[in-house]
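#structure-requests
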Amino acid sequence: MSPGDTARVLVQALPYIRRFAGKAVVVKLGGAAIDAEVDRALAQDVLLLRSVGVRCVLVHGGGPQVDTMMRRVGKEPEFRDGLRVTDAETLEIVRMVLVGKINRDLVATINREALDEPVAVGVSGEDAGLLTVTPRDTSLGFVGDVSYVRASVLHRLLDEGLSPVVSTIGADETGQPYNINADEAARAIAAAMGAEKIVYLTAAPGLLEDVNDPSSLVQRLTSAELRARIGHESISAGMIPKLRACADAVDAGVGTAHIIDGRVAHALLIELLTDEGIGTMVKREASW
């Protein structure tokens, strides 16, 4: 980029920085988008947003990584309606991969990129009662739906200048751990925090009219328009939970929801701080 191009980008970002300063943004990183180089770029994005006053919470999944570990120990993953069947042994594997591996790696990556002092802190939904759950269906085993988010835990960390990284294991009122769909956990967190935005970093460009044509990106639509598309044959099964979570989030008061390609370096900054953006944006009403 020429100096002039760089200046234009910075000038374009300024009103967005002013608008989002002091506001909460929940970013959900899907397991399929987790990659060492992309994670480093995401860490830089989170730190930059923090430096200009954006209260950023990173929520992560890890489905492919859990699948790999299950097969390594001789256990074949099983899914029903897009949800992982989670018996006691599978739950231990999920906790080990999400809390003990992915979360620690993301925290370490952010802290390595921090210029002055470590700021990232790993949090499980089990910690301090952050995510209280109720069982989804006995046939799924230890799979839960979020019934309560103790948002004050995240607000206190943010008030201290820390950057929370949340792994999506919750617990019921007896302390029994449960696996939670990460898309739904991020939505519940964003709604409870009164977030300005929720951003889903995926392994897709966003919502496509034609899954085989990346140029068919749908850039903007309302929650009602989005719901009308759920279940259409052009929508992949893996995208449905994200679409539903986006619609539910904005209907619950989150300002906007975004689905973007997490494999693109600095996709988060491009989506939040430029006019064009990079993915699909969802609002409750068509006030573009």
